Amino acid sequence: MVKNTTSHLGNHQKKAIRRYAPIFLFPTFIAFVIGFLWPFIWGLYLSFFRFRTLSKTTFVGFQNYVKVLNDDSFLYSFIFTLVFTLISVLVINLLSFTVAFFLTKNIKGSTVFRTVFFLPNLIGGIVLGYLWKIILDALIIKYLGSSLALNAAYGFIGLIILVSWQQIGYFMIIYIAALQNVPHEHIEAAKIDGANGMQLLKNITIPAVMPSITICTFLSLTNGFKIFDQNLALTAGKPYNMTEMLALNIYNSFYESSTNMGVGQAKAVIFFIVVVVIALSQLYFTRSREVGN
Amino acid sequence: MNTNKQHFKNIIISVIFSIISFAWVLPVLIVLFNSFKSNNAIKTDLFSLPNKFSFVGIENYIKGIFNGNYPFYFAILFSIIITVLSVAIILICTSMTAWYIERVKSTFCKVFYYLCIFSMVVPFQMVMFTLSKTADKLNLNTPFTIPVVYLGFGAGLAVFLFSGFVKSIPYEIEEAATIDGCNTLQLFFRVIAPIMKSTYISVAILETMWVWNDYLLPYLVLDKREYRTIPIQIQYLQGSYGQVDYGATMALIVLCLIPIVTIYMLSQKHIIKGVVSGAVKG
Which fold is adopted by the domain B72-242? Predict the structure, then answer.
């Protein structure tokens, strides 16, 4: 990063730029209001109303939120998503770190391996979901005599396989960048002191890449919570909504079985709060580490 | 002796990774060779290579593209239109805005900047219902107008990334350009924008991947009788809408993958850098 040598722009110049606000600022701001700000505020507001169509809304206070907390399907989805996310965070981070660890060791063909591992990350969730659905269903029908739509356990494992395949390459790249920045002298010094491979990894490498581990853990955590496309394409919640994750549950309470859309909106607000809490704790963790160093 | 041992170890690791890499692309390969097999052959054995009985040439591709009540080439066309327009408008507008925000730094700018950061955290489900209603009311439900919605919902990350770069541009450059007689527009497009080239590439890749693959936003916003994107059409064909033609599905999945894989092979360095630059998004 280049440090600024002048602390601020001259007032005269600022004024000159300001005159161009209608070109520089307004288009983005207006689109931002349409595409985010207004829908956000309106959504928050609507979560306190009972409605089926927007022409007839009734204020109900916190009733929608009470209904959400008594909605078994939502609580089930919440727990399902939580378990899914925790397992996927573990699997994704362990595997991507392991891959990155080996690929930074001067292996022949490591560039090709990186290219291959990263590729699935570019495929969209819907296409990815159907691609795996076809393959997993063929395997399950052939060897286990069941299918994704019949057995929730297979759906769960299928989702883990799918998101791991999609995301391992992504986190591998972040870990590779981190591992390449571990100071060589530290490793050499530890080797001279007689440290073996495991000790090196535990005492030198992992502490040095800890910031990246934090970032990747939180990123995979939010990714896991927000999964929608993959869920819709792979299982669509089958069987009996037993593989329905949070985002899909919210979607369904709006568009599939809605007597009161306010409940769906209240679910969305709770979902939003959960994601914000995760983001804030990430901020807290990364900040406190900076202070600690 | 020690280096020899190390060398041998590295070869073993190389071999193991070759096998894993092959397994990694196997799902794509399976879909690829099945796209040349007949529907029945796919159903009976997905994992066999096409032979002279099951091979059907490009029949699946023709069926996939032209059959059905909504032709797939429409979906391809609309996907391209939406992606190109949205990414173009996002790049132009947000880079200008980010520069304006960083240079003017008024209270309004600061509030807008923090709102942008805030918007990155908000999951789409929070706004999906109200956003689709708003877009509907404002006639933003066509491929030519939906880019406004993408600009609005995607502004946060793009403004954030551009501002990060603008902070590193020294003021002297702008002062020198102003003294040389540049007005603000010339200053931005002739001086600032070229400096930000690498950020433009990163943001372009990030937004392209997002818009091209996005399913729920266009599904809720677009008028689906007339306009569908590739992910929407694939969902229509696969969801509970009648008998699934496996051959055609395989062909369509391959068609979706071809542009992605081609572009990736041509510029993977940029793409990896671009996609990972979005890691700030919570």
Answer: MetI-like fold (1.10.3720)
Q: A2, A122, A280: best mutation site toward chain B, by most B Cβ within 10 Å?
A: A122
Give chain A's domain count. Answer: 1
In a domain, A33, yes or no: no
Task: Give the whole-angstrom CA distance, residue B194 versus residue A258.
Answer: 51
Per-residue pLDDT tens digits for B166-199:
999 988 888 888 888 888 889 999 999 999 999 9
Q: Is the pLDDT of residue B281 over 60?
A: no
DSSP letter for each residue of chain B: -HHHHHHHHHHHHHHHHHHHHHHHHHHHHHHHHHTTB-HHHHHH-TTSPP-TTTB-TTHHHHHHHH-SSS-HHHHHHHHHHHHHHHHHHHHHHHHHHHHHHHHH--HHHHHHHHHHHHHHHS-HHHHHHHHHHHHHHTT--STTTHHHHHHHHHHHHHHHHHHHHHTTS-HHHHHHHHHTT--HHHIIIIIIHHHTHHHHHHHHHHHHHHHHH--HHHHHHS-TTT---HHHHHHHHHSSSS---HHHHHHHHHHHHHHHHHHHHHSHHHHHHHHHHGGG--
Antiparallel, parallel or unpaired: β A57-59 and A49-51:
antiparallel
Is residue A138 situated within a structural domain? yes
- Distance between CA atoms of residues A250 and A246, nearest Å: 6
Distance from CA of B149 to the nearest CA of A (A): 5
pLDDT at A183 (0 to 100): 86
pLDDT at B154 over 70: yes
Inter-chain touch B135–A233, beta carbons under 8 Å: no
- Render pLDDT for B2-11 as a digit per residue (tens, 0 to 9): 678 888 888 8
* Residue A79 near chain B (CB below 8 Å): no
Mean pLDDT of A30-38: 97
Q: Which domain holds residue A83?
A: 66-292
CATH number where A152 lies: 1.10.3720.10
B94, B115, B209 ranked by CB distance to A122: nearest: B209
Q: Residue A11 domain-assigned?
A: no
* CA A36 – CA A29 distance, rounded (Å): 10
Is residue B185 within 8 A of residue B167, CB to CB? The reply is: no
A213: which chain B residues are within 8 Å (Cβ-Cβ)?
A: none
Tell me whether residue A39 is in a domain.
no
Closest CA of chain B from A16, distance in Å = 7
Q: Name which of A10, A173, A272 is nearest B122 (Cβ-Cβ).
A: A272
**Residue B154, exposed/middle/buried by CB under 10 A (0-12, 13-18, 19+)?**
buried
- Count other C-beta atoms under 10 Å from residue A280's C-beta: 12
Domains of chain B, by residue range, sit at 2-66, 72-242
* d(CA A133, nearest CA chain B) in Å: 10
Task: Report whether pLDDT(B1) > 70.
Answer: no
In sequence order, the β-bridge partners of residue A58 are A50
